[in-house]
Design a protein that fits this description.
- By secondary structure, this protein is of the alpha+beta class.
- Among the domains are: 63 residues, no CATH class; 67 residues, Annexin V, domain 1.
- It is built from seven helices and five strands; from the N terminus they run E-E-H-E-E-H-H-H-H-H-H-E.
- The strands form two sheets. A three-stranded antiparallel sheet has the order 2-1-3, with helices on one face. The protein has a two-stranded antiparallel sheet with strand order 4-5.
- Helix 4 packs across helix 7.
Length: 186
C-alpha cells in the first residue's frame, strides 16, 4: 500500500417516503483488496445496482450510492427518486434539457402509463410540433411492459441525477441544512 489511494464509501440508506430512517457507511480504498471484507469499486457498483433494484410493496425503500471522499453531498442524494414526483418537481429548464438529450422513444416509454399531469409537464416544455409528434408516438404504443417502462424511467432518473451531480440543474429536494461531506480522517 505504498501509494496514496483514493478513499470511497458506499452509503446505504433506509427509509419511508421522503424520510431517511437509517444510514450505513462502508469505507474502502480505490485499489485491489485481497481481504474479502473490503469493497473494490467494481464490487461496490455491483452492490449498489443490486440494492437499488429491490422493490418493496409499501413506501419503504433501501438505496445505495458510491461516494468519494471530500466531495459534498446532500441528504437527498441518498433517497431514491420516484419518477412522477421527480418530473413534477423539476424546473422547466431541467425538463427542456431532458427533452433535448434523452431519446424520444425512451421518454414515450417512461410516460406512457403516467398521469396527464406528468405528460403535460413534458409536453409543455417542447415545441408544439415536437409535442404533437410525441403525442402521436404515445398513441401508437398500444401496450408496454412494466419492465420496459421502469427501465426508461430509470434512464431518465439516472440522467437527472447526473445533471444534479454535475451542477447543471438543482435538485428539487434540496434544503440548505442537508449538506454532508465524507472525510475518513475526521
Amino acid at each position: 500500500m505504498g501509494r496514496n489511494s483514493e478513499k470511497n464509501a458506499v452509503v446505504t440508506s433506509y427509509g419511508k417516503g421522503r424520510k431517511i430512517e437509517k444510514i450505513s457507511i462502508n469505507i474502502f480504498e480505490d485499489e485491489y483488496q485481497s481481504d474479502a471484507n473490503h469493497y473494490t469499486v467494481e464490487s461496490a457498483n455491483a452492490y449498489c445496482k443490486s440494492i437499488n433494484s429491490m422493490e418493496f410493496e409499501s413506501d419503504s425503500w433501501i438505496f445505495a450510492k458510491l461516494i468519494k471522499e471530500n466531495i459534498p453531498y446532500y441528504l437527498h442524494n441518498f433517497i431514491p427518486f420516484k419518477f412522477s414526483d421527480l418530473i413534477l418537481k423539476l424546473e422547466d429548464y431541467a425538463i427542456q434539457i431532458i427533452n433535448g438529450e434523452i431519446d424520444k422513444k425512451i421518454i414515450c416509454n417512461a410516460i406512457k402509463s403516467e398521469s396527464n399531469e406528468v405528460k403535460s409537464k413534458i409536453f409543455n416544455n417542447m415545441s408544439k410540433n415536437a409535442s404533437n409528434n410525441m403525442t402521436r408516438d404515445l398513441e401508437s404504443i398500444k401496450a408496454i411492459s412494466i419492465s420496459v417502462m421502469k427501465e426508461a424511467q430509470e434512464k431518465i432518473i439516472s440522467y437527472v441525477q447526473y445533471l444534479i451531480d454535475c451542477g447543471v440543474i438543482i435538485s428539487p429536494y434540496i434544503a440548505e441544512d442537508e449538506l454532508i461531506v465524507f472525510n475518513k480522517d475526521k
